[in-house]
Amino acid sequence: LHKGRFWITPDPYHNEDNIQIGREVKISCQVEATPSEELQFSWLKNGRALKSSERMVITHTDPNISPGTTNLDIIDLKFTDFGTYTCVASLRNGGIPEISIDVNISSTTVPPELSVPKGQSQLIVLEGDTVDLQCLVSGKPKPIIMWSRVEESGPTAALAPMMPDGSAQMESYDGILRIYNVTRKMSGAYRCQTSQFNGFNVKPREALIHLVVQCEQCTLSTHSNSI
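== Ig-like domain-containing protein ==
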């Protein structure tokens, strides 16, 4: 069992970003398991077992679909529904510790907001430096932040360049993307974006940071030539 994640969908049938009394809210829990057919889920509310009912509808995806997902739909949300919901994933044959994921639903559960610190939307560094790109994220719960590079515009634009580790996206739990030993190839625009994982399943919030990597030898050469 690994990669236990959750997301909250406020009223799947309306274009809402916030949880509202009298509306529906869905909590989804996802876990990867091997073998997938042995995966099973259970739900708790404030530590007590929760059974599927007309207002608390529990569903599961096909266990052969990896990773497995379970959903808890709370119909006609009431103040008495506020509390901590726990999704518990385990294997039927046992032998492996179960995974528990807590999700708090309350009046303070709010969707995320994303911004770039003042003066940090463009960073100029020297080749070989270590640089931190930072996006500030608020909200409760705070979602995982996804970082990616933005493809160049224009007729000669190629596919979006890869991240420093060679992947298309990188995850961050604190909103910081740290790049070691930067090269000029790493110059360009970087996008930070809220993901649904461990947060709200709503339209992603995003921001851009432009990174300019200068060649130290080139800078020294230009400076000496100007003297």
